Structures
1.
Amino acid sequence: MAARLVRHVDDTWTAAGRLLAATQAAPPGEVFTCDGITYRRVKTKHDSDPQRWNGTAPPRAENLTDGTRIHTAQAEDTAFWTWAITHALRLTGVRIEELLELSHLSIRQYQRPNGEVRRFRSCSNATAAAPAAASRRTW
């Protein structure tokens, strides 16, 4: 089961990356094919406002088979974070509660005496402070 999940997550992220690249390469209105599916690069009226998108409109594609529109950068971003969470849970052994508490500040660096820099993660549980607070309670 876990191997199938990992394979699915890997494949989904890879496919989303290919669709994003194909969408970005196509000018608005152009029809293109990615992974055997035909798409059209679309541009909405909101995409025409350069201030809204900081000069670069998001890449959107319309699946010509079923008519669904996909914000391909958002789809690739979602696929990446699904991949990252799945692999973090699988490879580190942290619980979902600990994963939710990770941030860039949770990655620490240690420099060995020989100059080599090693990185390690530091997981702290939010309930770790609970015993200290509980000991101050008066009943």
2.
Amino acid sequence: MKKWIFKKPRKNRRAAQRLLAQKNDLNKETRKNVVSVRISDDVMSIIDDLITSGHVNSRSEGASYLIMLGVKSHYSFFNELSKEVVVIEEQRKKIKYLIESALIFPEKSPNSRLIE
């Protein structure tokens, strides 16, 4: 039987909500995840200005700071998105169950014949 692969639900549901609830400064958040991205020269210049001003200590911290600003400024959008993702994940579970249950053949009864 072919195994169907579905995206696993994210453990960090309501991430935007948790970020907003934290008391620390934007650039002092605990950061343990690494993401490699390409950015424009303009964004790099902004990050470098943040470093020069002493607001952040590194490009990594500057990029994290800008991302946090974006998340905080669009909190309601990310909150709604998170709710819709929960609905989508539930629908995927239902679809997976429907597919798997349709592919499992019932046991043969003594009166049934194979159609050739």
